[in-house]
């Protein structure tokens, strides 16, 4: 495999264009943006810098495609067939797509292959296979009437996605929406859009009718804002920062009150009790739970809360695992943490580490490394004694920066865990079954792991509470965002 990766590493890349109404199109004003590879800081290629006019054209195409029923009126089994073909095409091209994504966003190839094209393949298959097995309802009414509950596609969906896992997160949204019969305009992030364009091209090859799945690349403030402001987008799904999430809600309120579903990251607590079944395993999995993909993971377990009696010993175990993580060239199959997505993100991460040091905290690792490559790399960082008032304890870093904070009692652990504006994920490590279930109830988060971290599959929902957002990706519940209920009330 490594030989194949090496041949793809330097493959020249033609400029990438939007996919609008079944065609590849340049920006209306000819504008482009340059892709800088985080592997070595080199310019990889360009993509279309979308304008408001481009975005409106894509929305109009999606509107026409929805309204004339070319997709929504097909039998679900027919949509399924196209989607399954699409998944096969992506699978056949998975390694090339994964390498393309890594060259653009820096994720280590082992993870990128599984979590990006192959995860998109699995997600497309899951929703394709599900869609012809969903039934409506007959209500238990007075027999003089018939109450039918239909499930109808909501219409045109706008999707705005981030740079950490563009295909995985993108597919959670587009696979469910398209299977449901909706049409879509998707805006990828500025630093991770090439693979989504490639996958959209394969969708056309698989037989998605023109206008059903449009991808418009460019800046959030232009393309994303035009989607959010549109009167023709019925539902907006988003994964990204809280600041952008607020802007999207405002835009929806100013325009057509489109429904907005947000996934806004987290500051997820990972709680280690002294009675954890295996503290070595807990340390190893917890290190992976923050340091894989260099911490650029929404559900990253970025705050360890550890029972005071084992604080020092656990920090030592964590630092051993952190030091063993091989950071470097993301296209080397043995690398465990690749490049940071962008120079801006690297600088933000390092600023958190510097601030913790300036506050007198004990920090292990966290140095910039491999600067001679021209790329953006840093060692995992552990802030061994973070306090609840520290910014590094409260704000999402979205990098390989882990805080550790001791607690004395179960109640204190719950209070510290919930002392955050976020509520996406959490974990509890204990061999006390009752305590585990008590903690699951008391922690305000959409996903609570017990004696593990990460790795949950497509069959369970992912969504946040509090300022981590609303709505759910994954599982059959994801369809709720894309299927409306309609009642037919019939006098017999
Ligand atoms: P991050 O800080 O992780 O990059 P953002 O929220 O800025 O998070 O980015 C997530 C997605 O939101 C990206 O696709 C980005 O282009 C888009 N985006 C950024 N600003 C806006 C905006 N004002 N309106 C709509 N989308 C935006």
Write the layout of secondary structure elements.
Layout (H helix, E strand, L loop, with lengths): L1 H8 L8 E3 L2 E3 L6 E5 L6 E6 L3 H16 L8 H17 L1 H12 L3 H7 L1 H15 L5 E2 L6 E9 L2 E5 L5 H15 L2 E5 L6 H13 L6 E3 L4 H10 L5 E5 L2 H13 L4 E5 L5 E4 L6 H13 L11 E5 L3 H14 L18 H16 L4 E3 L2 E2 L7 E2 L2 E3 L7 H4 L6 E7 L2 H9 L6 E5 L3 H10 L4 E4 L32 E9 L1
The structure holds adenosine-5'-diphosphate.
Structure description:
With 492 residues, the protein is of the alpha/beta class. The protein has two domains: 2-264 and 469-491, Aldehyde Dehydrogenase, Chain A, domain 1, CATH 3.40.605; 269-457, Aldehyde Dehydrogenase, Chain A, domain 2 (3-Layer(aba) Sandwich). It contains 16 helices and 21 strands. It has helices spanning 2-9, 52-67, 76-92, 94-105, 109-115, 117-131, 166-180, 194-206, 220-229, 242-254, 279-291, 311-324, 343-358, 391-394, 410-418, 433-442; strands spanning 18-20, 23-25, 32-36, 43-48, 137-138, 145-153, 156-160, 183-187, 213-215, 235-239, 259-263, 269-272, 303-307, 363-365, 368-369, 377-378, 381-383, 401-407, 425-429, 447-450, 483-491. A seven-stranded mixed sheet has the order 14-17-18-13-12-19-20, with helices on both faces. Strands 9-8-7-10-11 form a five-stranded parallel sheet, with helices on both faces. Strand 7 (156-160), helix 7 and strand 8 form a beta-alpha-beta unit. Helix 4 packs antiparallel against helix 8 (194-206) and helix 6 packs parallel to helix 7 (166-180). The relative contact order is 0.14. The mean pLDDT is 98. Bound molecules: adenosine-5'-diphosphate (ADP).
